[in-house]
Model the fold of this input.
Amino acid sequence: MEILRTQRKASSTDAVPTLPLYRSAPPLEVRLEDFELFAIDRLRVLKGISDGLSRGKKPEEMMKLITDLWKAHMRHQNASEVINKDIISHFVLRLVYCRTEELRKWFLQMETTLFRYRLRMESLDVQRALMGDFDLPCKQVSNTEFEVLKEKLGQVSRSIGPSLATTDTIFFKVPFEEVPDLVSTRRVLIVKGYAYVAMNQVVSLVVTQFRSLLSKALVLTNRKWTSTISGQEKDRLTPIVEALSTSYLGPDYSQPKEFVEISIKDIDQVANTSFPLCMRHLFDKLRDEHHLKHGGRMQLGLFLKGVGLRVDDALAFWKAEFSQKVGAERFDKEYAYSIRHNYGKEGKRTDYTPYSCQKVISLTPGVGDHHGCPYRHFSEENLRAALGKMGVGGRAVEDVMDKVQNRHYQLACTLTFEAVHGTSCDAGINHPNQYFSDSQKILQSKNNTVT
Done:
């Protein structure tokens, strides 16, 4: 892996960047455990960035968010290994996210955003050194040309604020298409097809090149993955790579938190107050039709297990509903086993975990199915009606629908949670059982305040 270094001989005062360009995979031996753990840590950073962008955080807020995320997840107990973790984790996720156009697009945006803010943290000397490493198509503006354009450069500077002073500032002349973000926000002077970029704006130049190189690399990686790697590593790396793009990184909720339990007599009340839309829809359909297909039984059944419905109560609950349609004897023969199986009481005794939001979103319900994510699968009319039933109205509904239209389904659920409970949820909703748990905490806190 190539690490950015200046092309000139470094003096004692030269700033040497440690920001990788990720041009080639590192010739390192990586333990399989680190292969996955490093990737998960970086994925936590990228998903945090994605959430911040989707929430419309301002640049200064994004800077703090990314700094905190990096410190929290990309540390290493051996300081000398931090750079290796950075490089390895990037290349693992490049394998993970090269496989479809949608995955490539997401990874490209998040890695470019991460690179942009990390680059901004570097000094101007380092940023200038990186320009040389990228061999950018730019040339420093001469004193003579600067004097000719000084007044116009000053006008641009004043229009975007006092931070870009022209006095003693070095400017570079570059083809305008190399700095699309500066051009689109009118932050540079353009003359005869060239943009005049101040030294403290060179981040845009470097980031554009980084994005271009990474975009091409993802396509090439996909070809190599498809033709060679996935087959050669089908028993070792391929399962890890294929699972990472849909992995849930939080608690598994296989056991209810703090040993909380709910009983059958409580279930209607908590469904009304604390079930997320996906589970509330399944619950209502079960009550109405006294039956759910396999996908619905799995999604709702594991959720109920996670919120504290004991196996005996679960059997009684499902039997009470299903027996109204298929009869008690058929229920015992055809359905009771799978419920006990989910609780680890049958078969291999596996303790199955409730579905995360990513798992629910990835499901594709067929005709007659009710599982999956309503924010993804409902029509606009049906979704608006379902939200109204939960007590979400006015501007909040429009905000939710906006997130749905942009395919930010978890953020749509987060906004629903905030509207229903009248409080912010900065962590976001990542799991239906998290929704339930956080809801119960808020309701209990309100009850304690009242009493």
Q: What stands out?
A: Residues 301 and 339 are 7 Å apart (CA to CA). Residues 1-16 have pLDDT under 50 and may be disordered. Strands lie at 139-140, 171-175, 189-191, 194-198.
